[in-house]
Structures are given as structure tokens and as C-alpha cells.
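User: Need the bound-state model for adenosine-5'-triphosphate:
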Amino acid sequence: MTLLELEDVTAFYGSVQVLEGVSLSVPEGGAVGILGANGAGKTTTLRAISGTVRAGGRITFAGENIRGTRPDRVAGLGIAHVPEGRGTLGGLTVRENLRVGAYLRKDRRSIAADIDYCLDLFPQLKDRISSAASALSGGEQQMLAVGRAFMAKPRLLLLDEASLGLAPSTARNVYAAIRRLREESGIAMLIVEQNATLAFSLVDTATVLETGRTVLTGTSDELKGMDEIRRAYLGG
Ligand code: ATP
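Assistant: Bound-state model below.
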């Protein structure tokens, strides 16, 4: 079943149109990637979904039209956005950040169990549980950002450039944990990732954007087999 569907989505910063027609769909429990050059509109596509940029076209989530819906209400519907730059609260501790992620939940008992799950998923955070988020390394902050989004118990996770600025081994660790999270939680994922090798390690299908438009959609295997994708995104 389709969880999220974008049809001919447009978006604007002021009067400047940066998305011209983005179409993609994410099935329940599926993982979909968005590929594209710098400035193609990948980040803006995620913002259109989470309601942080003015958008046109159709955005349907769980059968409901959510285009133009306020960001807090989008979050309440079950969409968690991990933005580029992570968005953790630097002055709060790791534990406090995880609790903030759960702020819309009423099931107090399972919140504690879910914090334990995050610490199992990202063991590096265990020793830092009482440290301020601002004192963490880049990799630890990314782990915390994903953990915080998980704490909202979303149906869909929007993940923007999770590997940005991380050492290759750290980026691989973060993706391994996200793969595990996907398998164990069934949360659907829509990810923007410059590192296509990492993206293809997680997603089933991907959509390629060029100057604000969907130009290609295929399974990971189909896309990896295409010369132009290999040249543009896989360094070969
Ligand atoms: P990158 O990988 O560089 O982040 P992207 O594919 O995510 O690229 P977007 O960040 O969505 O691209 O940007 C799409 C276009 O919108 C670019 O031309 C960018 O310069 C422009 N843009 C992004 N943010 C703003 C903003 N706040 N105001 C005006 N224009 C913006």
C-alpha cells in the first residue's frame, strides 16, 4: 500500500520556483532515495512534505492530502524529519533530546523502552547519555538526530544527507544502524543522500531529480546498472 505520494509537486522560496514537478511514492514500510546534483531540489522536496516551504501539486500521506499542512501537524500525523545539519538541541543532554523526540506521545512506559532501544542501536550514545548534544562528535550527533526522530514513533522518516561531513567508516556505521532500524521497526523512509553507494545500501527504489523535476525512477538494481547513474553518482 502507498503511504506517501507526491504528484507534480512544485515549491517556492518567495517568488522563486525551485521545484517544477516532483513525483514519487513511498510504500508502507518501503525505503526510497532521492538522487540529484547540488541544487536539484532534494532538500526542498523533503521540506515540501514536512510543510516548511510553500508547495503546490498533490502530497498525500496515508490517504490524506497534507499539502500546505503546518509542520507541527505533519509531525503529529507520523512524519519525522531529520534535516541536513541534524537539528539536535545543543544545550540539552542526549537523554533530554531523546525525550523531546517523544513529546507528542502519551505512552510513558514504552518511552523508556524506546530510549533503551536507541542506545542499543547506537551504543556510542550510551556513554554520552548525560552529555550536552553540542559536545558530541558529528557522527554521534547524527545518531542522536536519528534516535530522536525514532522516538516520535513515526510511520515515515525523512532523512536529509545523514552522511554529510562524517568519516567514511562513521557514515557506514550510521547507515548500518538505519538499515537495522528499518528492518526491525518497519518505518518507511525517504532519504536524500549524496553518497549513492550508501543510499543504495538502504533503499529499494530511487528517484532522480534534475533542476526541480523528476526525470527517472527505478529500483536500486535498475539504477545501479545504468551508465549515466554510475558515472554521475557511483564514480565509475
Ligand atoms: P544540495 O545537495 O546542494 O543541498 P538540493 O538538491 O538539496 O541540493 P535544494 O537545497 O533543495 O537542493 O535547493 C534547490 C534550489 O533552491 C537551489 O537552487 C537553491 O539555491 C535554492 N534554495 C534553497 N534554499 C533556499 C532559500 N532558503 N531561499 C532561496 N533559495 C533557496
